[in-house]
Specification:
390 residues, 21 strands, alpha+beta, single chain, six-stranded antiparallel beta sheet, six-stranded mixed beta sheet
Length: 390
Amino acid sequence: MRELYIRGEQRREIAVVEDGRLVEYLIDDASAQTTEAVYLGRVERVVPGMRAAFVDIGQEKNGFLPMEERNLPDAEKLQSGMAVLVQVKKEAQGSKGAFLSRDITLCGEYSLVMPLNRMIGVSSRIGDEEARKALHELGKRVSDGRFGMVMRTSAAEAREADISEEAASLMAQWESIRRAAPTAHVPSMVHRARSQLDSVIDDYRPKGIDRIHTDNAALAGSLESIAPVTLSTGDPIALMKLDRQRDKTLERHVWLDSGGTLVFDVCEAMTVVDVNTAKFTGKRQLEETILKLNLEACGEIARQVRLRNLSGIILIDMIDMETEESRQKVLDALEAAFARDRVKTVIHGFTSLGLIEMTRKRSRRPLAADWTKPCPVCRGKGYIKEEEHG
């Protein structure tokens, strides 16, 4: 069962709950949302050695734009000072500016429309070859060589007329962007990103949304076509104590029901998750005991990764297992646990050191970036220098 809890008006908070447990917590603030937004930027510096340019889009840090992109082989050569239309693919984070692309993508419920290329693709989540072939042909018919498309999983159950209508609407958005760009101030935003609520609904409606709870009467009416809506007289998130679940997620240690623990360490280059037995001892043979704990950890790791919105490279140090059969069971369990994740995630398997390696696409900021700030004493290190002895 999947439910959405929404509170607030201008600055909304959205909680996604599956089977009674919080799995996502988002801030829906139009002024702060930049992923998918389109900007008219200015090339500040071209770095041939990096095959990239740094582009001023009006943010604190210049964005990073590759000079060459696979789907745009004939794109104009970047030069310092030139105005360029770009889209934010990954938000600025830490010391890094936003990751930009000239290959504009407009997202709908059934497909992604790419006005500047002619590629037809199908979501990797659709594994059946016949279904993939049918959707690929459908994309070719709808686009008719005028634009590129990637068919989302929801397209498999949609009518061709609905997909075609949505594609036409997205291309109309592109025409508005294209017309606005020549007279826009440089740098400036020329197309605002989808709201977090629209993104959540587009991603989860095909999977099923069972109920929506909100304290916003105006919003409730517009959501009735999505799922049954409960209009709360109080704060729906506080009533369900979902903000407490959110705050617990900001901690480094997570206790498992069995007594084991997970430890999350977020580094600049990757995130490391350590699985520990802690108070868990089990009552069966050692290999069975370890396997049971590792299988339990899989579900909670998936939930925590989604809730914390961790991305990039993630390494998981499971408790060592002796048999290949046990390791495969853990990989299968991890795949199944991430199947409900709306963000693209790839489980790469065990490394030669016995760590599970996985990657998760980065788009918006992690949960901790929205709800915490570095300590002014230790400057985010997590420790302070001890006073001099003697």
